[in-house]
Amino acid sequence: MKFLYDILTVFLVIAALPLFAVRLAREKGFGERLKQSFGFLPSAALAPVAHKDCLWLHAASVGEIVATSPIIREIRRQLPGIPVLVSVVTANGYEMAKRIIPEADSIIFFPLDLPWLSKRVITRIRPNMFVLVETELWPNFLFACRDLAIPVMMVNGRISDKSVGNYRYLFTILDRMLETVRRFCMQSTIDAQYIIRLGAKPRRVFVTGNTKYDQTHTEVSAAEREEIARLLKLPAGGKVIVAGSTHKGEEEFVLAAFNKVRESLPGICLVLAPRDNLRGGEVASLAAKQGLTVVRRTELDATTKSHDVIVLDTIGELGKIYSIGDVVYVGGSLVATGGHNILEPAAHGKPVIVGPHMFNFKDSYALFSGRGACDTVYDSADLGDKLLALLSDDAARAAMGEKALAIIKENQGAAARSVQHIWEVLQSLPKRS
Hints:
Oligomer: single chain
Mean pLDDT: 92
CATH topology of the largest domain: Rossmann fold
Number of domains: 2
CATH class of the largest domain: Alpha Beta
Structural class: alpha/beta
Largest sheet: 7 strands, parallel
Number of strands: 14
CATH superfamily of the largest domain: 3-Deoxy-D-manno-octulosonic-acid transferase, N-terminal domain
């Protein structure tokens, strides 16, 4: 089975070469990303961590980086002096890591899971431990860690309903991968049950909570909120809706709902942040077609006049921009993509609205919904009604926000627990000569 996996991986990489060529021509920075993905890491990135018993944390993209940030902060607090390497898969993840994890000694792109490549990269770095964040199980990389006696841990582990079925297609490879992981620190009892069902030994599985409750990179003072509003050229005293992490086919629902709200609350503004910031132009066109005055964040300047909609086409700003919203809609949930992280707006004490498709964040969604800190809508009309009701009721907004903050505070501490497990595994390792 491993042989078939390797053949398929090599075939997919070869088949993707024309696409790589197109992206090289069109995407700024893609060349560096591609070089690193094939194992050509810059000396400057290796110097702080290679052969220095570093901790290597792997976080695929933006969501995992948000979860990684408090863990690294705890590593600095509990394990000072240990070098930290962070790897990512996506360009957005790389930019986000640069922005919110200044404590990392080095940030690189993760190597492609080719049969010979993983061992070569690991040998060059020789970390003391590899820590995968959430669910990034790559067979060749994990087997290379095993062969080189590099211990592996999973932190903030999360297994979606879909992943449970998909991983089973790996058959015996899955059992061997799970065997390489010394401890599974999972977000919830459901995630723990899922990883055990997939084959993890129960004695290696622990429930430590969700580290996203510990995030602080989005903390915003009153002065910072005023500055954000000034930079976005929002009208003083006007109400703001923030729609974050929306997907293709979802923005039409949000814009129609916003138009409905404007009929009763003229002067309101919408900050619309597509999950893929490269879709900024497309989303701006959708807003213009609905008769709205729209501007992209990257085009805001001193000459920009008043606008109804701001399309946030930047990386790393959304977490703080949630702080200026009176109501927040979190996307990926009116279309069946599984939703996105509701903890960021909740940490600002904001009332949160989502669609029904939150299966990738089932635990936090159930918790916040059950406590009245999150409302669910089912279509554009429903979204418009809910937005208008909340925007017209200061007390209701405040009550939802207070409930959200209470839940955040009650569930903090996962990062500290995760780092304690890292420390225990490090203590059990034989001393290197």
